[in-house]
Each structure stands twice: as C-alpha cells, then as structure tokens.
Amino acid sequence: MVVILPIISFLGMLKQDDDLRFNNYPYFLGDQDSIGEDLDLITFDSIALGGVDLGAVKKDLFVKLDLDDFGWLNKDSVYFLEISNPSFREVELYRFNTDGKLAYKELVGTAVKSENSLRNPNPYFNIQLGKDLSPTVVLRVNSKVPLKFEAFIYPYSSFNKNYSLRLIIISFYFGIMVALFLYNLILYFAVKDRVYLFYCFYILFIGLAQLSISGHSYFLLQKNVFLYELSIIGFTTLSSVFVIPFIQLFLRTDEYIPKYEKYLYLIPLSYVISLVLWQMGFVEISYSMMDLNGLIFVVCFFTIGIIAARGGNRSAYFFLLAWSFLLIGLVVLILHNLMIINLGSYANAPLLAGTAIEALLLSFALADKINILKKEKEDEQLDKLEAVKENERLIKEQNVFLEDMVKSRTEELELTLKNLQNTQTQLVNQEKMASLGQLTAGIAHEINNPINFVSSNISPLKRDLKDILELMDVYREKGKLEFSEESKEEIDEMEEEIEFDYLLEEVEQLLNGMEDGAKRTVEIVRGLKLFSRVDEQDVKEVDLREGLDSTLILLNSTMTGVIKLTKNYEDVPMVECLAGKINQVFMNIISNAIHALLDHPIEGREPELTINTFFKDGMVGIQIKDNGVGMPDKVKEKIFEPFFTTKAVGQGTGLGLSIVYTIIENHKGSITVDSEQGVGTVFNIALPVNQKG
Q1: Of 91, 90, 65, the residue nearest 79 (C-alpha)
Q2: Per-residue pLDDT reduced to its tens digit, 200-235
Q3: What keywords tag this UniProt record (predicted)?
C-alpha cells in the first residue's frame, strides 16, 4: 500500500496535465545552423500530434510550439516550459519578437554545464509572454537516444508541485529499493545463502536503472554525459545478469526445467548485445531490442513461475504475484509508448510501481524462509528454556532424588557397557568364526578316517556273519542225524539259554544300526566340511543347495522330530561367493526359524519349515519360510538393526541378523523379510551369480 497509494495519487493528476500539454508539434530535421534569425523564413514541413516520437535520428530536431494554444496564460506571469525526456543532450529555446526577429535563445541539456538549481532532470525553461515577444516558441533538440517527448507549460505553483511530487515519489521508490537491498544483504550474511546476494544486486541495479530512466542518475554520476547515457542500458543489463542466478536458486529451475535452464543466459546476452549496438551507434535498433528483451524477460520468467507453482513450489506463488505487477507496469508503459494511453510526465510511473511492488513481494518470499528458520529457532530456544527450568527443579530437589539419579546413572553405564561388549563381540566375530571353521575342519578330518574304516568294514562283517550262520545251519542239520540224543538235548538247552534265535535277530539289528550310524556320521562329517569354510576369503563357485543341506544336517538335532521340513530345490547355477559366510547366513536364519516354531507353538498347527531355491533375472533366490507366530511391524522394521533382539536376556546378542544383512550386502545381494502375525515369516534372499561386473 505504501507504494500503490502514492502512485494512485499522482496518476490522478494526469487529467490536470492534459490542460498543460501541447498537442501540436510542427517540426523539421536539420543542422544546428538550419534556423536563422527570422521566424517567418523558417518552414516546418511536418507535424506530430499528441507528442513527438521519431525514434533515433542523427540530425537536430526543430519543433514549433504555440503559446496561444493556452488561452488562460497571463502575460504578466512567469511560466515553465518542460520537456518530458531527461536524456536529451541539448535542448535550445528560441524566442522571437513580435516582428519575427530572434530575441534570445537559451540552451539546456545533459551536455550543457548550466546551473540547474532545482536539479530537475527534465529540460525546462522560464517563459514570459511579454508584449514584445511572439507567442511562438522554437525548440532545437539534439539527442543520442530516440526522440520521444511531450512539452508542458506550467504555472510556477503547478510546476513546483508537479516536480516536488515526482521527486518525492522517486526518492520514496529509491528509499524502498535501498532498504530492501540492505535488508537482503543482512540476510545473506546471516544465513549465507547465495540467493539473497544475487537478489541484492538485482534490486540495486534495477533501482539504478529506474533512476537512469527518470534522469536522476545524471546527478549521481556527476553530470557525466557518457556514463549517464550508458547507464540507461547498462544498469538494466547488469540487473539481467544477476536476476538469472537468483531465479535459478529461488525457483529451483534445475528441478523444474532442467533441459532449458542453460538457455536462460541468452537473456543477459541479448542485453549485452543491445549495449554493444548502442555503443556502435545503432541507437534505434538497440532501444528496440531493449523493449523486446523486457517483454521476453517478463513473459519467460512468468512462464517459469507457473511451471514451478504447478510443481508444488510455494515460493513460486509469491514470484507470480510479484511479476504480475511488473508485467502490468510493463504493459502500461508499452501502451503509453504506442500512444494508446497517455501518462504525460509520469510515463515511468507504472514501471516504478511494478518494480517496487515486485521487489517487496519477492523480499516477502525470501523472508518466508527466514520465518520458517525463525520459528524453528524459537521452538529450539523454548525447548532449551524448558530444559533449563527442568534442570533448576532437579537441582533444587537433588538431595531428595540423589539416590534415584545415581541408580539411573548406574543403569545407563551398565547399558553402555553392554553395548560396548556387544560391539566387541561383533568385531571379534569374524576371527571366532575363522577359528571355528579351522576347528570344525580338523574334527571332521579326524572323524572321517575312523568312520570310513567302520563303514567300509560293515559290509564284509555282514558277509562273514552270513557265512558263519550258514555253517551253523549245516552243523545243526548234520547234528540231528549224527549227534546222540544226550548231545542234542545239551545243544537245545544251550540254544534256549542264550536265546539263539533272538540273538541272530539282534546281531542283524546291531549291524543295521552300525551301518545307519556310520552313514549318518558320514553325512555329519560332510556337513562339517562344508560349514567349516567360514574362514575362506576367496570367492568360489558354490552350489547353495549343498550349503543349505549341510546347515540342515547340523541343525537336525534341534528340530527334535517335531518340525516338518519341506525342500523345494529348483536347478540353480553355481554362485560366486564366500561359502562360509553364506552358510553362516543360512545357519542364523534357519536356527531363528526353528526357535520361533519350538518356543511359540500354535495349537492345532504342525510346525513346518519350507526352503525354496529358484533362478530368476540373473539372480539365485533362496526363500526360508516358517508357519510360526510371525512378528509385528514394529519388530520387522528393526530386525536387521545391531543389538536388536526379542529373545530373553542372555539368550541372544541381537547381532545375528545384523551380520546376515552385512554379508548379503557385501555379496551385492538383497534380503527382505515378510511377516504376518499368526501366519508366519518368510526371508527372501537374492544373490547374483557373478560378483564382478
């Protein structure tokens, strides 16, 4: 509102300016000496209505103004003739006597080192009608910028009021821009975010550009004509250089328009080209290109803002609102330039309002980030304050609660010690597993030789016993014929005493038992050999099904014959891996499944453990499934975390599945768990066939 209300106020004076503006501008183009000292000999062959707009011309412009167009002028009063373009190098006033002879001339402009007590950027002259002076006034205009202006005649009071109001507005505008520059510069040093720095320089140069357009920068640049004319395009060019990185950071263009982001720098490049063209003397092309650049500039960024807003960028809404005002100001200025509307001496007012409101709204958008940070800081300070108050209360009551605090601290230390011990356990785990592998391999080797001896001798022993029994049958048959009755009776008594028939059956059973035991021992030794590879550090091709079988052999005794085991092994390729590490994975998961089934039986349901293997998409899959009680989601989410366990104290460290996860990850595989309470748990493991590539 502080920007809009003054704009509305002085725009209300436009109607008054209509009564003070010259409408007819007879003119011709010529050299400085094209006008003589006799008004009647001067021919004005062209006329402009409503204002002069000739573009860039190399010759001087001579314009005739008729004071008789204003019937309300008083010949005894002093008036001010003002030209509404501050960038003209020379504006020379020619006054003639009533007989048409030159009375006097007066020269002002940016290239004229004349005293300008009011520091009014627009060229102006004191005008008196006088009895001996002609009401016809001739102006000569020399300019390096396009010839576009209107002429106004003001009474002394109206001139001062009009000039003062414009000075207040431009001062108010520049004050806002300087305040926003300093505000955002402070924010930059506070938060170290480059977006504030780029915005500071954008505000600075867009504000200076408006001062150049209004002519006030002429005085800031110590009345240096070259620097002033350069600043009209130069400051706008510099503002375009800094606005691009600001837009990129503010709207995150790398996220919303990544393919087109690099083309944004074509905008400042086009401004630089305009500046070069102006320096080379192509003034009209340069200014036309500047006008086109301004329109493209706003439309392009407005489009980016819409894209970012659709993408959910909150800051984009501030941006669109801000650039809407700038777009409105630019459109109004273009309408004025096309003479569709006439803003008189306030032609730059819409652009002043647009840039000021844009700068304010964008500062609000940037401050929105600060508000968020401020809110977080306030919450943090509030939490700290509450903590301080709580500490004060605890200090006052420390004598009462000292024992509880000591106890609590002791428990914390014990927990820390436990965590350290568990960490130590995990660190030495690999060394222990290596030692276990060596020990297991040694035991398997030592058992293997004698058990091979036993198993290899069972078959010959069976054959020998069979031969002996056949011989016994022959003896019995022959004895029935040749032995005496007394000998037969003694033999029968002996057979009954030793239970000969039962003895034969028992020997057969013992031999079968020895054979089964030997086979079982051979399987166990084979499983131990496979499992003992935990200390291997070289990747080898391994059949994972053998690893599963060896693990099941070692865990067979823990199933107690209660758990039903189902194996669905599909043909899978050999897998490059550390066999011992993978066997360790199988051991941990299968043993956990067995404990879950035995420790938490479900009435009316037979415990079942199912193991599936398959090959899909270059990965070998292993699925270990039980139909136990399952686990809740909060347990499932933490199951692979170190030191997390659901077992009672002393029954588990919580490292098993954490180690499992690490082993699978090191093999470039994946492991997931699906579990539903009351249904069961499934571990899904996927391992690549090859570790390289």
Answers
A1: 65
A2: 898 888 888 888 888 888 888 888 888 888 888 888
A3: Coiled coil, Kinase, Membrane, Phosphoprotein, Transferase, Transmembrane, Transmembrane helix
